[in-house]
């Protein structure tokens, strides 16, 4: 009798060298197995984020992991197996999450094995493609506006790149917290942002926000550079600038201190409770995710090229398992 066993494999995106989107390739590799405290998720959709193409360009993760490696953090899918000790999920549960960030998660694949508590139940009223667009961007906005700055009713919040992946979710989260929301975006995206709850909008192509926006309590900035000094001018004393980019030597620290404002760099973290809060907002109809474009896994290079162009609205998503 033939006792040969076949090691389960899967499709996954990998790269051997750093560089442009065409270094990405879909390969067949060994399917992971869940360890203690982990779940194995059959991935239906994986979000595409700026962190993904920056890692691809550099050829190294923030934790020092070097090539070759898999890419992707956002996951929406179905639990296939559970490892020893897992009590919060069982096979068949639908989940979404941002496992392991900033360490490699390998979400651009048919299966992901990761800590169970890096996931939460998927919002009931979303498709996998929609919930696959949520985790990293929504957690970034949530942790910036809720955990870091505790935005409260009546405060004023300025969101840069308000129509982007993080931005369009930040507008809605700030609004759900009772804030007045100001966003910077091109004029063509203003109607969309008004429909998401933005109260005031600045066309960054024709207006200087630093000349028109005042008395802001919180600025959420994913742009950096000259935006830092100009954003400080909009803050009232005691306000906070939350940068999603590290505050390097170009940041005007003395200017911030003189203005009596706080400036922090925030790095998003896996957060089961945050995911549950985000899912509740979605299910209550107070948070809507926009998937600007959907690509099959095999067209991952095209997805990265579109994202790097910087003209997308909302998120880009990879469809992994139909």
Descriptive report:
With 322 residues, the protein is of the alpha/beta class. It is built from ten helices and 16 strands. It is globular, with a radius of gyration of 20 Å.
Please count the beta strands (DSSP E, at least 2 residues each): 16
Helix content: 25-40%
Please tell me the total number of domains. Answer: 2
| Number of H- or I-type helical stretches | 10
Instruction: Give the N-terminus to C-terminus distance in angstroms.
Output: 36 Å
Strand content: 25-35%
Give the CATH H-level superfamily of the largest domain: Medium-chain alcohol dehydrogenases, catalytic domain
Examine the coordinates and then state which fold CATH places here, giving the name of the CATH topology of the largest domain.
Quinone Oxidoreductase, Chain A, domain 1
**Approximate shape:** globular
In the CATH hierarchy, what is the class of the largest domain? Alpha Beta
Radius of gyration, rounded? 20 Å
Mean pLDDT: 95
| Known CATH architecture of the largest domain | Alpha-Beta Complex
> Strand-and-helix sequence, N→C?
EEEHEEEEEHHEHEHEHEHEHEHEHE
Question: Which class do the helix and strand fractions yield?
Answer: alpha/beta
Uncertain regions: pLDDT < 50 for 5+ in a row?
none
The largest sheet, given as strand count, sense and whether it forms a barrel, is: 7 strands, mixed
